[in-house]
Design a protein that fits this description.
mainly alpha
């Protein structure tokens, strides 16, 4: 049994070929849409990669600037540290010297005053000052003890 008895077989084959051609055209149209979507996504991806590359370059240049700034700051801090150590050493020497002087004052031993060369005097000679009284010695001892206490507190 034939569905259409009066149609020749060539026409039936041509109808079948037309149906397959229509299916192929539909499939090609769908494939074209997918390829366009992929290309547009690819263009967006290229743009994203370009932006990422630019951001990476900015980050690299910023890191270089930070390295240079930290090196300069490190050199400045090193110089400041050297100066601070020199001042600390000088200050410790001054404190030690002050403590020795305070101890001498506390014991009542004063270093000898520098002597001035004697000049020949045409007139009368100066008479040596009388020795300090007990009251003057007590005042000097109390001042020396206060100085010693202040130096110890400062230490």
């Amino acid at each position: 049994m034939t569905v259409v008895p009066d149609l020749p077989i060539g026409v039936i084959l041509e109808v079948i070929v037309c149906v397959f051609l229509a299916a192929t055209i539909a499939y090609c149209a769908m494939l074209d849409r997918r390829l366009r979507a992929m290309r547009s996504g690819q263009d967006g991806l290229r743009e994203l990669v370009g932006d990422l590359n630019a951001a990476t370059q900015r980050a690299v240049s910023a890191i270089e600037a930070l390295k240079q700034a930290s090196a300069a700051t490190g050199e400045e801090l090193g110089d400041d540290l050297k100066q601070a150590r020199l001042l600390a050493d000088e200050l410790s020497l001054m404190i030690e010297s002050g403590e020795r002087i305070a101890e001498r004052l506390g014991r009542g031993v004063m270093p000898a005053a520098p002597r001035t060369p004697m000049q020949p005097a045409a007139g009368p000679r100066h008479v040596a000052a009388p020795s300090p009284s007990a009251r003057d010695a007590a005042v000097a001892a109390r001042a020396a003890n206060q100085l010693l206490g202040a130096l110890k507190k400062a230490r």
